[in-house]
Design brief:
The structure is a single chain. By secondary structure, this protein is an alpha+beta fold. It folds into three domains: 5-79, Winged helix-like DNA-binding domain superfamily/Winged helix DNA-binding domain (Arc Repressor Mutant, subunit A), CATH 1.10.10; 87-130 and 231-342, Beta-Lactamase (2-Layer Sandwich); 132-227, Heat-inducible transcription repressor hrca homolog, domain 3 (Enolase-like, domain 1, 2-Layer Sandwich). 47% of the residues lie in helices and 19% in strands. It contains twelve helices and ten strands. The strands form three sheets. It has a five-stranded antiparallel beta sheet, sandwiched between helices. It has a three-stranded antiparallel beta sheet with strand order 4-5-6. Strands 1-2 form a two-stranded antiparallel sheet. A hairpin with a 6-residue loop joins strand 1 (56-58) and strand 2. Helix 1 (5-21) packs across helix 3 and helix 5 runs parallel beside helix 12 (319-342). The relative contact order is 0.14.
């Protein structure tokens, strides 16, 4: 059995109808609502074939059909038209994210998450920057007194970590400035993964006579950059799912909310490769997410992914609208992050 033009048109009509109504679709509905130029009986036969091919499901023998995960997958990959975002909505997104670019990265990301949730009417999840992918923007050594020096490590993701270094001899401000320059020359723009043995040995040679600083700064780098690796998960719009009749079923709603409460599950769920990804139903291997669709995208500094944002909802989400909003928000978010980083 092959997928011809007629079957594709019928499948498209069923998916559009089901996304809008949440009601299983019958052949008569398709014949009435969509001018396909074929009889209700022909549509019924084609629907039967589409079910056999795995693109549709029938809940009860007497009821209409709804799209399966396989049906949605074909729709997202091949059939849907990406909705054009009205210009005023794009201006709103742009203005919203440019205004917060004056603040810290954290604030820009949270604003983007809240904006996405508001525009899509779905639950939105932010995974904050993973520091292993961040690089060191600067290291500062500041004298507190004769035995204590404060080291301040700043990453490009706006994460700042302070450590006190105990020194065995008095170091003048002039020498401290020189040591700060050496540290920045060796470590600036490196990620934690790039601070390898060669980098460490070169730094050790540069800091001969100042072993206290060398011995303290290396663990401080690893501690600070690894400590934040358990990146935070931030949720917006968790109760938006109650706008979907699927979640009038209290057990299903409870399952969804307990999924959102499990940070490890949520991190796995929205883990995106670079770019934008759509995972539907069974493609989500996380317990409680088999009836959900997840649209996620990574946010970047330049070409380096820092973390991810995901939208979670039932498999019936309006993909066309949600994907276009997501793409637009990510575009302006990445521009804001680039501006922040250039400052």
């Amino acid at each position: 059995m092959e997928m011809d033009e007629r079957k594709i048109k019928i499948l498209q009509a069923i998916i559009n109808d089901y996304i809008n109504t949440a009601e299983p679709v019958g052949s008569r509905t398709i014949a009435k609502k969509y001018d396909l130029g074929i009889s209700s009986a022909t549509i019924r036969n084609e629907m039967s074939d589409l079910e056999e091919m795995g693109y549709l499901e029938q809940l009860h023998t007497s009821s209409g059909r709804k799209p399966s995960d396989k049906g949605y997958r074909l729709y997202v990959d091949k059939l849907m038209q990406i909705e054009r975002i009205p210009q005023e909505e794009e201006l709103l997104i742009k203005g919203y994210l440019l205004n917060v670019a004056l603040y810290e990265v954290d604030r820009i990301l949270k604003q983007a998450t809240s904006l996405l949730s508001e525009l899509t009417k779905l639950t939105c999840v932010l995974r904050s920057p993973s520091v292993k992918k961040s690089y060191i923007k600067s290291i500062q050594l500041i004298k507190i007194d004769n035995v204590d020096i404060l080291s301040v490590i700043i990453t490009d993701a706006g994460i700042i970590k302070n450590n006190i270094i105990k020194v065995s001899k008095i170091i003048s401000n002039e020498i401290l400035s020189k040591l700060t320059l050496i540290l920045n020359a060796r470590l600036k723009n490196l990620t934690i993964e790039q601070i390898n043995l060669e980098v460490i040995n070169n730094l050790k040679n540069d800091l001969i006579g100042y072993e206290d600083i060398f011995n303290a700064i290396i663990p401080a780098l690893y501690d600070t950059l690894n400590a934040v690796e358990s990146s935070e998960v931030y949720l917006e719009g968790a109760t938006n799912i109650f706008n979907y009749p699927e979640y009038n079923d209290i057990d299903r709603a409870r399952e969804f909310l307990s999924l959102l409460n499990n940070k490890d599950y949520v991190k796995t769920l929205i883990d995106a490769e670079e770019g934008l990804s759509v995972r539907i139903g069974e493609e989500n291997y996380v317990p409680g997410a088999k009836e959900c669709s997840v649209i996620s995208a990574s946010y970047n500094l330049g070409d380096r992914p820092l973390g991810t944002i995901g939208i979670i909802g039932p498999t019936r989400i309006p993909y066309s609208k949600v994907i276009s909003v997501m793409a637009m928000v990510m575009k302006h978010l990445n521009n804001s992050l680039r501006q922040y980083n250039d400052e």
